[in-house]
Inverse folding.
């Protein structure tokens, strides 16, 4: 089995090979067929690459081949965004009357699927404290079909015990989906411990350059076939050129992630003892309440940390204004450092009372890019020093 840096460069080689070293962009909405039988077969082939781009495209198939090898799954597929991946998956896997378990600390869009979309469709949901595996067990009902986990979680960097949740789910015939966006397959491979399906906002680390919106799903072919069927109806198709950019971005993922890990840890350590800082949330810190679990299931701790300031929302805002390198932005996972106050961003996805628990007002989410570590640390410390604390 080749290593990850080899996989990201070569796993797509066999798909529509041409003499071009860089793969061509198949900028086409449809493909032609030689005869009726070929056409009919193309119409029903899950994630096929030669029928109609909403059904599949060679640029999709190339990304999927790389992702499936990185996540060690039978199959993978791409979608137009991370939210397209999770919403399509959930719509494919549950029906009215079913029950879904999710986490209290989770990406705002995922929280809104659980709190708003699914209940409207007659699917009941329970959001649990992910730091306790027993909470998942307590939330199980005979109607539970799906458990959605996200670890480390956005924005509080809480850890879910992936093995414990997968074991519990299997014992009860429940499917598990893990959002692996923050960790990336370099730092964590959920399917190794029994998670069924992994998904990513490929907008973040997988693409890595803040220039594409995309999502991926990876898992057993039988489950991905069902999700693909529903994707034909949701129609959140990734454009061929965006798939091509995503493939180009993913080629260097194994080079970028170690630098993100180094920068995340260095920033977390530097800010952890600053007097303006009440608390740093970063699973790589020995002071993180779940550091041992994180160290057990992760190879690196990622580039995202969140910092709670002693002076609430205003002080967090001032910190962002003082930063020289990280810009104020909703995204993360690119080569450039970005920072955001999740409290203001989550407001676009959830109501005020849905936000309070998961997102403290004085919280800053800092996503370390690939800049030089010393520059990022000096910048963050100078910005914190400039605060009136
Ligand atoms: C950004 C993000 C998403 C949503 O992905 P989009 O590509 O923006 O749709 C989902 N989960 C996590 C953890 C994220 O950070």
């Amino acid at each position: 089995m080749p290593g990850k840096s080899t996989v990201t460069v070569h796993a797509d080689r066999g798909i529509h090979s041409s003499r071009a070293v860089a793969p061509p962009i198949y900028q086409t909405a449809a493909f032609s067929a030689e005869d009726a039988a070929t056409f009919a077969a193309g119409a029903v082939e899950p994630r096929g690459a030669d029928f109609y781009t909403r059904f599949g495209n060679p640029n999709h198939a190339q990304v999927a081949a790389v992702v499936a090898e990185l996540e060690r799954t039978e199959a993978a597929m791409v979608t137009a965004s991370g939210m397209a991946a999770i919403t399509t998956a959930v719509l494919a896997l549950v029906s009215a009357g079913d029950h879904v378990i999710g986490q209290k600390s989770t990406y705002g869009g995922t929280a809104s699927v659980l709190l708003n979309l699914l209940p409207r469709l007659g699917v009941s949901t329970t959001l649990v404290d992910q730091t306790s595996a027993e909470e998942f067990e307590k939330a199980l009902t005979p109607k539970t079909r799906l458990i959605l986990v996200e670890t480390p979680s956005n924005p509080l960097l809480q850890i879910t015990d992936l093995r414990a949740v997968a074991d519990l789910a299997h014992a009860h015939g429940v499917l598990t989906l893990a959002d692996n966006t923050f960790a990336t397959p370099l730092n964590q491979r959920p399917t190794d411990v029994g998670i069924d399906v992994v998904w990513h906002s490929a907008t973040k680390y997988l693409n890595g350059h803040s220039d594409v919106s995309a999502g991926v799903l990876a898992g057993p072919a039988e489950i991905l076939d069902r999700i693909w069927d529903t994707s034909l109806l949701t129609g959140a198709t990734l454009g061929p050129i965006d798939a091509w950019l995503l493939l180009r971005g993913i080629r260097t993922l194994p080079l970028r992630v170690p630098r993100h890990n180094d920068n995340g840890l260095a920033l977390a350590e530097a800010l952890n003892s600053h007097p303006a800082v009440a608390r740093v949330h970063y699973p790589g810190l020995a002071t993180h309440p779940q550091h041992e679990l994180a160290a057990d299931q992760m190879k690196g701790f990622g580039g995202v940390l969140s910092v709670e300031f002693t002076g609430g929302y205003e002080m967090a805002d001032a910190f962002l204004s003082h930063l020289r390198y990280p810009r104020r932005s909703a995204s993360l996972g690119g080569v450039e450092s970005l920072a955001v106050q999740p409290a203001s961003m989550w407001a676009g996805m959830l109501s005020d009372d849905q936000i309070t628990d998961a997102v403290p007002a004085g919280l800053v989410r800092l996503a370390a890019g690939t800049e030089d570590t010393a520059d990022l640390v000096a910048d963050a410390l100078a910005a914190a020093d400039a605060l009136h604390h």
Notes: The two ends are 53 Å apart (CA to CA). The mean pLDDT is 96.
